[in-house]
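Homework help board

Subject: predicted structure for assignment chain

Our instructor gave us this sequence and asked us to write out the predicted structure in token form, then describe one feature. I got the tokens but I'm not sure how to describe them. Can anyone check?
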Amino acid sequence: MTVAIEMGHATAGAPATLDLEELLATRLLVQGNSGSGKSHLLRRLLEQSAPWVQQTIIDPEGDFVALADRFGHLLIDAEDHTERGLQVAGERARIHRVSTVLNLEGLDAENQMRRAAAFLGGLFDVARDHWYPMLVVVDEAQLFAPAVAGEVSDEARKLSLGAMTNLMCRGRKRGLAGIIATQRLAKLAKNVAAEASNFLMGRTFLDIDMARAADLLGMERRQAEAFRDLERGQFMALGPALSRRPLGLRIGPTETTPRNATPRLMPLPEATPDARAIILAAPPPENNRPQRRSPPDLLGQLMAAKTAALEIRPEAVEQPLSAEELAERRERVDRILRAVMAEPDSGFRAIGVLYQEFVVRCRIEGLGSDVPDLGDFRRMLTRARAGLGSDMAEDDAWQDVSVRASLLPEDMQGVFMMIARAAKEGWPCPGDAAIARAYGSHSLRRARRLLTYIEEQGLIVCQLDGAGRRIVTLVELAWATAPGDPNAEELPAEQGCSSSPP
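My token output:
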């Protein structure tokens, strides 16, 4: 059965239609700058196809919640559900063929990615008997399939990117037709964008985006300037479900409207005589503000109870720690840090996650209020990545190294100190894999770029011997590493501590 969805009118005035059955097999990519009409286009497509096919919308800004009242979509507020609950909800929505809107408004970027990944996973993993046709619309897809790492944790990014890749690369056989909209193709992961066969390209201004849009539509580069002239709601279309040749079209009206309407100019109110008194009045007392309850910190409560019990004892007077006690405490902290670093893949986890685990372990060990703060933890982690213990890091010989390391960004200082230690001890130069791991990356190319950057700062000199082994010399200190294979997988045994996961 062929169902033609009327999207609007072509430039010549004829109706512009979309073959819904073909769309289910070939997927759709929409690009346009903010304000170009992407959300309006998606709304038109959803409204016109609602009677014919099951739908789900991944909605990061709450723009599509009105579909629930007009077309009967089930509105799911992700903030009210756990990741496991959303995964099960996705499975049940697929089984019972219920159209849904997953509203992610109010969540931060990381939780949006985690919950969207869970819901998409439920849609994807349902049993074969329930592989019914379904449109899966993802607005602002660059948030869920970013081309580069951002501020979110690697775990959340991998979960979200994996779910989006499954949708666009493997979803067709499961009846899932991905429709993704993005502000910029450059921000969207290439393996996700490459699977779409239909394109609707709206207004854009950057040369790189115009060039990529022209390439996707099979237009000549000199025609790319046309994307700057498109008005709001105008798009260039191409694809088996739309047109075999690039076609200009204007999207038609919609029955529902977004909650976040486009701002419009309106007259200012008449001047208020007591504006100063109103605006600059004293703020209300802090205790009048409603406070959101946070989850109870059980470990914190236990430590507080222990501290209070000690305070009520007359003999419990805080005494300064002796040198032996300070040394013992430092050894305990180092031991805890080594345990955190020994966790699998700890070298590639966010520093905030590592610090949380470090704090919990310190509390379990009974360190109480003596837990190092985040700044101290960062410095300890930098030394640990270089294979330096607390005693070695305090040696006078390392003061010059620390001063030079401070010239680099914080995440590079551990790598520099690791190389400095190898040079001081006369060990072979660490390979690309060891440098990448100390930096918290899997990329060997990034490790080589990192060495180049440090050399450009005038801190080291890199050279190769006749056998292709790398030698690194520290400028001014006259320390040089022994020749080392850049392709070595592991550090030598005597340097093993410096390759421990951070």
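Reply (TA_rk): Your tokens look well-formed. For the description, you could write something like this. DSSP finds 18 helices and 14 strands in the chain. That's the kind of observation they're looking for.
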